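tl;dr need the bound structure. longer version: we got a ligand (magnesium ion) that a collaborator sent over and nobodys looked at where it sits. i said id run it. heres the input, straight from their email, havent touched it
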Amino acid sequence: MSIDEKEEKKDFIREIIDEDLKTNKFQGRIHTRFPPEPNGYLHIGHAKSINLNYGIAKQYGGKFNMRFDDTNPSKEEQEYVDSIVDDVRWIGGDFEDRLLYASDYFDKMYEWAVQLIKAGKAYVCDLSGDEIRDTRGTLTEPGKDSPYRNRSIEENLDLFERMRKGEFPNGSKTLRAKIDMAAPNVNLRDPIMYRILHESHHRQGDKWCVYPMYDWAHGLEDSIEGITHSICTLEFENHRPLYDWFIDQLGIYHPQQIEFARLNLTYTIVSKRKLLQLVQEKHVSGWDDPRMPTIVGFRRRGYTSESIKVFCDKIGISKKDSIIDVAMLEWSIREELNKTAQRANAVLNPVKVILTNYPEGQVEELQAVNNPEDESAGTRIVPFSREMYIEQEDFREVPPPKYFRLSPGKEVRLRYAYIIKCEKVIKDDKGNIIELHCTYDPTSKSGTPTANRKVKATIHWVSAPHAVSAEVRLYDRLFLKENPDETEEGKTFLDNINPNSLQVLTQCKLEPMLGAAKPGERFQFERMGYFCADIKDSKPGAPVFNRVVTLKDTWAKIEQKDIKR
Ligand code: ATP
Ligand code: MG
């Protein structure tokens, strides 16, 4: 199935929603949510989830909540809360005034737990975490009943109250649902609802020392907020019976949980735990390192939220796990920037060219096209003079076969300008090329009647006295393997890190206009790729650029392109 056909087809979640609207299951309401745990920065997988949940709310005229699932105080921090809110807004998830926190429902959840105890559906258990795990049984064998399973309701109420008051140390007691230790679904074997944790919560401070477990809390949060479709990833499919059980036992409003496949991308890690490890062990410069698949990383790299949305829409959603080619994501930003990015000339690895027959001190103002895809972008002036920079790659002292760019005695066209011929190669005592002495053909100026003489290649250039010096950072994939988790015995995903994923070029020469680039502004550097002025380090007059993505053309193909020009 082609991408376009897929787009026309409704995804299975929207089909469920259409059906629910038909049967009036939720009285015509649609209400979704995005429920991150504030224990890390958001990544591209979360973007898919936001795009799905917000996209549904928007399409059906419903509502979308932003809710922090902040039920685990030990790993959660305000820094993450702030960054997540920022990222969700940037991705375009409009939650209006509904910025919500699961921790605000702790009182209600506690009341409901008491209600279950009173109904004989929950009990305080003194087994340790290990003992609970060991008595849980396996997929083929039933578990064993806890010796505390048949405590009286009064005793359970008393113990649970004292757990809350802080009378017991961490790990000494839990509150468990009383379901069935022989249930075929292990999630239903008396799951833990509360554990004791004497830790401060980022919003609740020291008010609580019992904290709810995900499975207990999540459905209650959805129910309180009146969520209609609680969309989560596939690993929760086996938890749905428990989600339903808690809500049914309490007799409260019942949202519908629906699972879809999480996004996996080639050459990319989308696990918060592993991303945290990359940051903490300084394999990258931070959460916003442009090589990170985090939203802040993509943003700093120069991706637009629109391109990420286009990507999410293209890949669609499914019920089966798969791995998406990261090239799809690169394609979506390239497509957008091809249409929108202003073209510019930048020489990343410069070598100086001196036009020995060009008058000293003369400057010509040449017209350059701003965007061939968008006529309304107009043209700009670029200065041309006696000294300029070209790419080292565009000169070969000993040209290989089919190399049509500059070499001794050979000609090349400087884009928008003249045909030049290499007359002499100047080297230092170590044999490094420091300058190329060339002559220009005054009759060959682009756009003039005598300019029709053809040469096989056209290259870009920057006038040396007018050039702006800059740092340019070239990024490559952070991992060498398509599946970074595929490792030999005893190795980890860290051993698959690409040691050449960042190349910093400090000698770059840019055309004058780029000196005024604003942080976050994006350009196509002709023949070199799409670049974005770094939002942290770039300053007008001292630009720093990140490569967002390469052009479709690799260097190998440029040779063919040159022939066509
Ligand atoms: P954790 O292991 O810390 O729970 P998580 O990636 O599940 O990590 P959450 O903060 O719980 O992180 O995720 C918030 C929401 O984003 C959840 O609804 C989750 O299903 C969804 N989500 C997370 N990762 C992906 C992914 N790779 N693709 C699609 N959705 C995802
Ligand atoms: Mg999760």
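gonna send this back to them w/ a short note. Residues 342 and 371 are 6 Å apart (CA to CA).
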